Amino acid sequence: MHKKALIITYYWPPAGGPGVQRWLKFVKYLPDYNIQPIVYCPKNPSYPIVDESLTKELSKDIVVLKQPIKEPYKLARLFSKKAASTISSGVIPKEKKQSVIEKVMLFVRGNFFIPDARKNWVKPSVDFLTDYIQKENIETIITTGPPHSLHLIGLQLKQKLDVKWIADFRDPWTTIGYHKKLKLTKASQLKHQDLELKVLNSADQLIVTSENTKREFEFKTNQPIAVITNGYDTTISEKPKKDSKFTIAHIGSLLSERNPKHLWEALSELINENEAFKADFELNLIGVVSDDVLQEIYSHNLKDYTNVVGYVSHDDAIKAQMQSQVLLLIEIDSEDTKAIIPGKLFEYMISNTPILAIGPKDSDVERIIKSTNTGAYFFYEANNTLKSQILTYFNAYKENTLVTQPIGLKPYSRKELTKTLSELI
Predict the structure, then answer these.
(1) pTM to 2 decimals?
(2) Per its UniProt record, what Gene3D superfamilies does this chain match (predicted)?
(3) Residues 28-39: what's their mean pLDDT?
(4) Within a domain: 310
């Protein structure tokens, strides 16, 4: 007999972006391990990104429960559609470039909606799920955040029903980069920290996506913590041909602080110094790109070599990864981002395309790329080795030998990761 697991998530198809894919894939494979997943999600959400292509992965046999949610971002769009969309998608402008409306929205978001803008969904969800869990004899509930308000649903259900509760943290809570930009008062900061501690110390099992987050949480709780990263699950049967040009592509959001100036300098210098590079080079930015990053790129005379594609479906993103000659992975250079592992990393790793990564020292991304032999990792300090690596990739491209030789990728497959999850359930 299948064991039932109730998964409480905000992001679910047709939501786009990496937040939805983690649990979409877990739900896909859990039945293979004798676990029946039941998904609970909003009926009328306000998703910043929509990707209808993900709906085709939904099995007709999966039970999906939906309840209405009141979305403050819908109201915020009445005042400023652009500001509301920007903030809800996570692309927060630098403070000196924030409009008055953006500053007010960030203050309201940080101090009146704790832990986040979906807090008003907690009570109606607890009321609905209390009856459902008892009626269906569900023994295990799983909450996944962000939004971390969903963990408060788990906390209250645990207190009322004493079910087994697994809290999945796709990102940290109080130490994630954007948390510091919310213009929090001291009282609000303390409230976030208090709620975080209650969740960490009440859940029966914690799941995190990186070793750095596990180490952070171990200072705050004695509850068991498992690391289950995101992973890959390729659905494209026929690989597309590689681009004819030397394309370096970044796929995903490029926030204001994901802006390695020495990379743009290196590319500009190679164009000026190498005629062959100048003739073949192309920079493709696929996804949301902040104005700050674009201005920096253009200031290095790279505008004529840059294609800003915008958001594409997940299927098209996979194809772009396989078609490109080199894949860029850029993370903010801070202590807080050492624990962030972009979901696209694992798809990058199986694309047969070398990764050129830039981020903080001692990050989980650095460890994974080096251990799997899937690319090269650099820090934000300017040095000639980054430029040399790009030139090495370019020379291999000219010789038609630009391929990767990855090792140890199987543990990152979605099915293997779901097996680990099933053992915790």
Answers:
(1) 0.86
(2) Glycogen Phosphorylase B
(3) 96
(4) yes
